[in-house]
Design brief:
555 residues, 4 strands
Length: 555
Amino acid sequence: MVLSLSAVRKLADARSFERGERYFAAGQVRRVTVDGTTVHATVDGTRTYRVRLDVTPKGLSGRCSCPYGADGVFCKHCVAASLAWLEQGGDVGQPRSEPLSDKRLRLFLRGCDQEWLIDQLMAAAKSDRVLRARLAAAAGQENAFDDRDVRDRLERAIDISDFVDYGGAYGYFMHVGEALDEVERLIGAGFPDAAVTLAEYALELLESSAERVDDSDGGLAEAIARAEEIHLAACEAAPPDPVELAERLVVRAVSSDYEVFLDVLPEYEEVLGSAGLTRYRELVEEAWRKLPPKKPNDYSARRFVIAHLMENLAESSGGADGLIEVLAGDVTSAYDVLRIAERLCADGRDDEALTWLERGLTDFEPDVRLRSSAAEIHVRAGRRDRAAELLWANFTDRPSLETFRVLRQATANGFPPWRERALAFLADAPPATGSWSPGRSTLVEILLADDEIDEAWQAALDGGCSSGLWLRLARARAASHPADAIPILLRAADQAIEVRNRDSYQAAARLLTEARTLSARCGREDDFQEHMTAVRHAHRTKWALRQELDWARLP
């Protein structure tokens, strides 16, 4: 497929296309790379966004790390990346032909005087150390590349002494990205070994400066991920000593507070090879053995990292059994049991998972998650009665519409007696101390959800419910009993007025408008007029409220 401007226009709305054009024209698209039928790009916006374009038999599709792109919208960043790709030729799956301008330049250079060309290259090499190093390496010079300039560039971009607030964070991370661009450039220039060293140095600098930057938008995690990507690409281009690499990966992961090199498997397996993987395993297992016995609620960062490394290692080599063997040796909480059960269920091993869950329910405090997981297994096996007992315990521990619905779904046709039991349980709860306090809100909510309006109304009268439920209940009851709903709407309006801001005054006006409509249906216009007279008199000094009442054409 060859990309066209009209194809991009069809994918985006007019506003997104216009903004994408501006981003492209401003040079905010960086690192456009084509891999088969996939195009990757980075676009600088309010933050740095990653764009992926895919060519399929049905045409072009785009994804972006921005909120709109994550929802599947062909956003302005996708447009900008597409335009940058179009400028490069807009084709995938085959090498691009050399642009005509490059062909002309190549033809010109072939006819140039050799001394003139040498002078031009030497002049360019003075301002471009990478070019100079490439020429020196081609001439046979060892250690041709001196990384001091790039190292200094990283330090200037990343290492800071003063705090960078939210307003300055975008610019800070943009400069960090530009410095990392220079490191990435070394891979294609023929110096991947230097890129490995500098990527690791960049990670050190990022960690040391992390506490001095406002990271509300996640720029730090993105910069770390970028440095890790460069590191892997450089290692793949020129694999370093596998044993030394394994040692550095483990040491950095265990000492990091920011999850650096936490998930290197399976991506690094080919680079590490047999010797590197053996050393990696030795170091991770050694760190695992040295951990003190886990105590309940032990969530230390070091334990988390080492356990995570061990779990990744175990699963990469032994699958589910390897992972479970590791997890089983470190069980001190219901959550630990749940992780084992979930992994077993993912492999279709429900019986083994159920054994673990039953053990967890015996060994630890009652846990809603364990009961829910065990109930799901029983439902899959057709044991709905056993599932119901577990879910009933969840309902009585945490009465809510959600736990009620889960019980209903699990019991299916056998739900009616459970429903009666649940409603009786909720009806026995102590009534509220005031009619607008939570009281029997769960009972009212369940009855409302089942369209049992009269029963919900009586439950609220008997035991009270929250103010939000009273409003829902009043609006539901208004269809058949409008007079019952009026006092609730008026009370809610009074409460909104007491909040004393423009939004609350608008809400009060809407509630009063509803009450006026119902009063007209009941023939109580005079009562409503009297109430409004009292409201306007009591709040005569609130000019913003008076405006809202007038705009709503209330008396």
